[in-house]
Automatic annotation (TrEMBL):
CDD domains xrefs: CBS_pair_DRTGG_assoc
InterPro entries named in the record: CBS_dom, CBS_dom_sf, Diverse_CBS-Domain, DRTGG, HotDog_dom_sf, Ser_kin/Pase_Hpr-like_N_sf, Thioestr_dom, WH-like_DNA-bd_sf
Identification of the protein by name: CBS domain-containing protein
Protein's organism: Macrococcus lamae
Keywords: CBS domain
Domain CBS: 195-254, 255-313
PROSITE patterns for the chain: CBS
Pfam families according to UniProt: 4HBT, CBS, DRTGG
Domain of life from the UniProt record: Bacteria
Gene3D superfamilies in alphabetical order: CBS-domain, Hotdog Thioesterase, HprK N-terminal domain-like, Winged helix-like DNA-binding domain superfamily/Winged helix DNA-binding domain
């Protein structure tokens, strides 16, 4: 285990909320300040530590796919453009629900507890009870906080957040943020499928062809990310690069430099696009500081895309909303327009047209070619406005088709009158 990995393991063993400093890590693990600093920054990229203003760096609980919708109090501060007036050390904590304190003290107490945020105005009585019940407080209207309340918040590590907005506005802002998080929860990202750095075979740029051969023999792989002496990704080396090369030649001379990389937050769809377009079988996954977080392979990306349609839907994107009103019967595709699909002028919004075209194309390609798709380009011509409560029919014509690409023309009609036409090019992916 490298010194970097030892520091990460040490940080992961710390209690949630523990403060972390470069100097203390360096002293405890007998490493240089630079090594400790890089490891702490990597831990921050991995989501297990966070730097909080006027508090420092603290150990936090890493968000998983199951908990991504739980916002932290620090995130709430940014969402509502607020500021912290007390309990700053608890900003890393997550909230599961929020309550509005527009009620009597006895009634409000029923909704208070740990991992809760109370939204309230200038009511010190409810603020006091909230903190006593381990509930954070968001004070609306820009009111001041009594010193005794501030001291209690600091003692319990429960944030008091102040906002100039009214209660209704901040409640809507937080609710919207939670809803957005639910949608993000269903978007597959690299973090879900990557092979972590601990499980990834790597070579240093100072290694030789002989080292490549030995690693290939022991691991059974032929493609490896290459890192430099700072443990940053600097290249990719494959079996094609070392054919007929002398065993003593340095990897640095043969590797592909400045390789295409992705981050843990990159989407699976983005990886598929890169791999197909560039003909790449493996992508290194890097942290913000170009340290290796792991790798993703073409096989893993395609398997993830195939399973995406079978994931339970927690949030609702525009495509989810449109799909509920689409009907597919053989070559016949229809969709009923609803008020939710309208623009502020009462006609179908352009984003809904895009969703209709995308879902119709996905259906047609699955049915005819047994393929998933990635849309490369899309040109839409809006010919007539479409009022709500209309029923549209969609027809598709393949103008050109190959093994990896297809060009289609899409007609959208209402009462046999064409209201929109589209031309699109899409990549075809094995289903």
């Amino acid at each position: 285990m490298t010194k970097h990995e030892q520091i990460i393991a040490h940080i992961e063993s710390l209690k949630i909320g523990s403060k972390i400093s470069v100097r203390q890590i360096a002293k405890d693990l007998k490493v240089s300040d630079g090594t400790a600093y890089r490891a702490i920054k990597d831990a921050e990229n991995r989501g297990i530590v966070s730097t909080i203003e006027r508090v420092g760096t603290v150990r936090i609980e890493k968000k998983t796919r199951e908990t991504i919708d739980n916002l932290t109090f620090a995130e709430i501060v940014k969402i509502i453009d607020g500021h912290v007036v007390g309990g700053r050390s608890g900003l890393h904590k997550s909230l599961v629900k929020f309550a509005i304190g527009a009620m009597e003290v006895e009634d409000a107490a029923k909704y208070l507890g740990a991992n809760t945020l109370l939204i309230v105005g200038n009511r010190s009585d409810i603020q006091q009870i909230a903190l006593e019940k381990d509930t954070a407080v968001l004070i609306t209207g820009g009111f001041e906080v009594e010193e005794s309340i501030r001291q209690l918040a600091d003692a319990k590590g429960l944030p008091i957040i102040s906002s100039a907005y009214d209660t209704f506005t901040v409640a809507n802002m937080i609710n919207r943020a939670i809803y957005d998080q639910l949608i993000k929860k269903e978007v597959l990202t690299v973090a879900e499928i990557l092979i972590s750095a601990d499980e990834t075979s790597t070579l240093f740029d100072s290694d030789t062809v002989r080292d490549w051969k030995e690693l290939s023999m022991s691991s059974g792989h032929t493609r490896f990310p290459v890192i430099d002496d700072q443990e940053k990704v600097c290249g990719i080396i494959t079996h094609k690069d070392i054919i007929d090369q002398d065993n003593s030649i340095k990897i640095k001379k043969l590797m592909t430099k400045n390789p295409i990389t992705v981050s843990e937050s990159s989407t699976i769809a983005a990886c598929a696009h890169i791999m197909i377009w560039e003909g790449i079988e493996m992508l290194p996954v890097i942290s913000r500081h170009h340290m290796l977080a792991g790798i993703v392979t073409r096989e893993d990306v395609l398997l993830a895309m195939q399973s995406a349609d079978r994931q339970p839907q927690m949030g609702h994107t525009i495509n989810d909303q449109v799909l509920k009103y689409m009907r597919f019967e053989g070559n016949d595709i229809t969709v009923r327009m609803t008020p939710q699909m309208s623009s502020n002028l009462g006609t179908v919004s352009k984003s809904v047209f895009v969703a209709i075209i995308e879902e119709a194309t996905k259906y047609a390609m699955k049915r005819e070619r047994k393929r998933e798709i990635l849309i490369e380009s899309l040109n839409i011509y809006f010919l007539k406005t479409v009022p709500i409560d209309s029923e549209l029919s969609i027809s598709l014509l393949q103008l050109d088709s190959g093994r990896k690409f297809a060009k289609l023309e899409v007609d959208i009609c209402s009462k046999q009158v064409t209201v929109a036409k589209a031309m699109l090019m899409c990549q075809l992916i094995e289903a």
